[in-house]
Amino acid sequence: MDVFFNQAFAGLSMASILLMVALGLAIIYGAMGVINLAHGEFVMLGAYSAWLLQSYLGLGILASLPLIFLMVGLIGLAVERGVVRWLYHRPLDTILATWGIGIVLQQLVRMGVGSDSRYVARPTILDGNVAIGGVVMSNYRIFLVFFSLSVLAATWYLLTRTEFGTKLRAVIQNKEISECYGIRTDRIYALAFAYGAGLAGIAGALVTPLVSVTPGMGTYLVVDAFLVVIVGGVGSLLGTAVASGLVGEATALFSFLMNDTLGRVAVLLAIIMLIRFKPQGLFPDKVRR
Amino acid sequence: MNRNFSFDCIGYALFALLLLVVVPWGLGFDGFELNTFARYLTLGMVAMALALSWGCAGILNLGQAATFGLGAYIMAMHLKLKASVNMPDGMPDFMGWTNVESLPWFWEPFHSLPVTIAAGLLVPAAVAAVMGIFMFRGRITGVFVAIITLAFLVAIQLVFVEEQRYTGGENGLTGLAPLELFGWTADNYSLSFYYFVAGCLICALVLALALVRSKVGLVLRAIKENPDRVRFFGYDVARYETLAFCASAAIAGWAGMLYVLVLEFASPTYMGVPFSLAIVIWCAVGGRDSLVAAALGGIIVNMLEGRLSDLFVDGWTLFLGMLFILVVLVMPRGLFGVFHGALARVIAFYRQARLERRESLAISRSVVSGTHDKGGR
Predict the structure, then answer these.
(1) B54, B143, B166, B273, best to mutate vs chain A, most A CBs in 10 Å
(2) Of A136, B147, B220, B340, which has the fewest beta carbons less than 10 angstroms from its beta carbon?
(3) Where are the domains of chain B?
(4) A45 domain residue, yes or no
């Protein structure tokens, strides 16, 4: 039984990382219909920023989070203004262009920092484990679960309780009409993209103690995160949260029943089935467009 | 025969001339140089396969590398078995290291070359048929097709890496014997091998063109424009889409088989996400609306990659990424789109000029005849 709970906790921890990566992606895809394959590279940039700030300025991960959010957000803003904004009417082409951006960002990091893997230390206050019965949970992973939930709450607050969120939702529903009401849609898009990128940066910084930091770390993460967004349903924060929980737990469960790789394969096949039979996702957006 | 078709024929003839005469001549009929070029040709072939589904039918398949990899592994299995005849039980070496007792049943058929070649075409096509029926019967389109094929690609690569006992895992299949076809041994550094690959590519192109120019191709282009209208006309849209998907997969499998012959190994990176998206890049750079242009796109980008990676060891990836962003932003139809636009402009210009000349001729003739009439009176 303990093994089972340990596995369930591992799944929860994976889900929390997925949630943070997928949230940014969900906003970008939900708001603009842009499939941002460079999202994995934003995660990677966040991870490298954490490494940079720690090894040169001696800042811990937690202290550098706001800075990382800003840095990666600014890069996201530059990407949106430079490339993505020309492609809003060609959604399939965004896949290609953002993949190109991803290649460029990866290569820039590889040339600037080198392709060796880097390590970032865990915050010391979050060292240690909590043991309930035979279930051992690392404090840092528990922190990640709560942190990702608070990011979710903050995003929900931003979208539903602030002026920016109201405008963003208006633009999502009908771009032309919102423009008639004086909303600067291009500015809203740019900010939403930057916010999504910033979230990816935070996610990247927070996973650094768990995985090794390499220029290519984002490539497969973005595939997973994108599947989560689709499964959850476009434009639904709750859907993204539930889907990341489901995918995380299902991966843990299948890995426990079979092995790690086949577990992942099983989850991928399950996701393919789900997209086939429910392309709108688990929580379809009920707003009329 | 309409103008488009005659342009196609001219394009294909030029392309064949380029492959069969210009390139070997330019490289001095040197087998070693031509080997690298043969590699570009196989990659051009898989880009062309993608153009068949993406450009022609509008199905963006991000998992094209899966069918390419299947073809590659099938050919590699045959060559591996040939290389292992002197091993105990004729078992490949890596199976011995991973304690496999006897040759697994699904390796057995690949002792025979005809079975291998048939399988290299049919297995990818069958996989694509299952995927196609599964997706298109449910009227899945656009982004969702892209996502499903991408997820499928990741899954299939994971399986190939995981089942090390049967597939060689991360290392792939190495130490392969050369192919023997009708008593001809494929030496991949020879001129004849280059012509073999070039011939395969031209064959595949002609077959694909026959499909595109047939009625099926017409229906496919209609589906790309508006699937609902085609459905109202009573066509079974899913069946046509599946057909295009299968044809594309079979050609990709073919290209995969050739790729193994060129490089002499099969590796799970052939099924990687980066490779699969690279195929999409080549196709987009060349222009997905034309099969030849897509093939050329694959050849050109890989040639650039080869040259640039010699010059700047790792700066070329940067260049490639930027090139790609630029292509998507500035020329969404690829090189073919630019060429096509220019051609259309030239034709329009000449037509205009001819019209004007004819008009001015007519005017002057009437003037001349007018004066003649006057003189007659």
Answers:
(1) B143
(2) A136
(3) 3-332, 336-377
(4) yes
Please indicate if any CB of chain B lies within 8 Å of the CB of A78.
no
Average pLDDT over residues B79-104: 76
Model confidence pLDDT, tens digit, residues B100-118: 777 777 887 888 888 888 9
Task: State the residue for tokens 């990407």.
Answer: A79
Q: Which residues of B touch A107 (CB under 8 A)?
A: 314-315, 317-318, 321
Q: Is residue A271 part of a domain?
A: no
Residue B363 predicted with pLDDT over 90: no
Question: Would the CB atoms of A279 and B140 count as touching at under 8 Å?
Answer: yes
Residue A210 lies in domain: 20-215
Residue A285: inside a domain:
no
Out of B317, B318, B329, closest to residue A97 by CB: B329
Q: Which residues of B207-233 are buried (b: 16+ CB within 10 A; e: fewer)?
A: ebbebbeeebbebbbbbbeebeebeee
Sign of CA dihedral B104, B110, B115, B117: positive
Give the whole-angstrom CA distance, residue B351 versus residue B260. 49
- DSSP, res B176: P
Provide, as residue numbers in chain A, all residues whose Cβ is less than 8 Å from the Cβ of B273: 219-220, 223
How far apart are alpha carbons B77 and B92 in whole angstroms?
Answer: 9
Q: Which of A97, A111, A277 sits opposite B314 (nearest CB)?
A: A111
Domain presence at residue A125: yes
Query: How confident is the model over B119-138, as a mean pLDDT?
Result: 91
**In the beta sheet, which residues pair with residue B185?**
B180
| β-sheet bridge partners, residue A135 | A132
Judge: A261–B158 Cβ closer than 8 Å, yes or no: yes
What is the number of structural domains in chain A? 1
